[in-house]
Amino acid sequence: MLTVILAFAMNVLVALAKTVAAVLTGSASMMAEASHSWADAGNEVFLLIAEKRGARGRDDKHPFGYGRETYVWSMIAAFGLFTVGAVVSIMRGIHALSETGEDSDYLIGYVVLAISALLEGTSFLQSVRQARQASARLSMHPLRFVSRTSDATLRAVFAEDAAALIGLVIAAAGMALHQVTGDARWDAVGSILVGVLLAVVAVLLIRRNLDFLVGQVPMPEVRREILERMLANPDIDRVTYLHVEFVGPEQFYIVAAVDIVGDLAEHDLAPTLRAIEARMEESDEVVEAVLTLSTPAEKSLDPASIGPERTLD
Length: 313
Description:
- This protein has 313 residues and is mostly helical.
- The protein has helices at 2-25, 28-54, 69-97, 106-136, 142-148, 152-181, 185-214, 220-231, 266-280, and strands spanning 236-248, 251-260, 286-293.
- The two termini are 24 Å apart.
């Protein structure tokens, strides 16, 4: 939540500065960046809604809770980035290609870009800090974690801030080439490139949210950790089947086949399974766990065969 709120505040300030600069300079690249920042600011509102609505617990109508609603609102935010940011920037750039263009007040443009880089960088560092903290537990590179994590809001803020910083470089290059050559088409090309960048980011975010809405299995490292936790249970001798599916950010639905320690009578097996399920569901990450019994012929699952070697916290 802190990451999203900080990103929203920074984007509003940046959008205001870029809009004023775009009006004063007439720069197509700056106008594209202004549209980009307003789109980002609007997206943060959707991400805040996603965080709030997705955090609701389960009820009779939604036995797995509302976690997947996070991906719905995050997808809406990604569509907003595509339509408001990408399409407007590309159209503005194409239109500017046919204009002769007037000399811009380059100093204002560069100052605003520098201020924007500072504000966007502050928001980006917060998302990087959060990604590093979360990825350290799984001994993963932060970039890989961001691409695979179930936290849609973290991925969106990280991707949008990274795109914003790249967009600032593109806008500065477009203005600089316009200033050096006197050809306003460089500025227009900068606007188009910013739009293409936003389109690529939006499509990637839409695709990842769709994956989780359809039913995304977790990373091998996460499955391995869950299996190790199950095998650490004193009542479980071995696990022969494990299905883990995301039903929200860091929320799992688990189905497993297990072999119970000892040789319990039939009337004792069901209560033991239910007790194990209840203990698993005490974790905030496990929305529901369903266990069944393994057959003697089924092969045991080995944690070492799932994902790379790592040390658990």
